[in-house]
Amino acid sequence: MIVLQLCLYCLLFAAMVRYSVRGGAINGLYFYSRAVQERAYEIGLTDRETVKQKRKRFMTAFYFVMLTALVLIIAVWNHVSDFKTAYLQALLFLEVMNIFDGVVIDKLWVGHSKFWILKGTEDIPFVQTWTQVLKKRSFLALIWVVGALIAAGIVVLLAKLIN
Q1: By the 8 A CB rule, do 81 and 89 touch?
Q2: How many C-beta atoms surround the C-beta of residue 29 within 10 A?
């Protein structure tokens, strides 16, 4: 059951990313390196304020949806009410999501799809190298240790409310 839940959670993650770029990859310029962003501003594809607003809107919705889904899976679907189990499940989901983002989203989807190529920035590398992916994912792995604590606390509170 947990494997199915992990797959659904990662599918939700991919759907959120796809939703963010529903009008074209330029709508997800905040996902790109600074060099690509600067070129996009220079050639008039968009402006900094627009990107800043889109990033803020997306990230707020993204964290809300992903945290809500995580808490509901653990508390409601899995009927977890103790902190240790909630923490371990939250950590598992967050770390799998982290790896999914680095490998499936960054390396496979972005790395092998013409969709992500922004006209006028073709000469700037925009796909992260494996070294960059490993560095970023290692850093985020540490962040998710803390994130799992927060999610587990919410799960325990929710479990008390529904029991």
Answers
A1: no
A2: 22
Query: In the chain, what are the helix, strand and coil shares in percent, each to the nearest 5?
Result: 80, 0, 20
Q: Could you write out the three-class secondary structure of 39-78?
A: HHHHCCCCCHHHHHHHHHHHHHHHHHHHHHHHHHHHHHHC
How many structural domains are present in the chain? 1
pLDDT score for 163? 77
Between CA 109 and CA 21 the distance in angstroms is 13
Q: Is the pLDDT of residue 108 over 80?
A: yes
Biggest CA–CA distance in the chain, Å, is 57
pTM: 0.94
Contact 2, 77 (CB under 8 A): no
**Please, what is the average pLDDT of the chain?**
97
How many whole angstroms separate alpha carbon 32 and alpha carbon 36? 6
What's the rounded Cα separation, in Å, for the pair 8 and 90? 14
Domain encompassing residue 17? 2-162
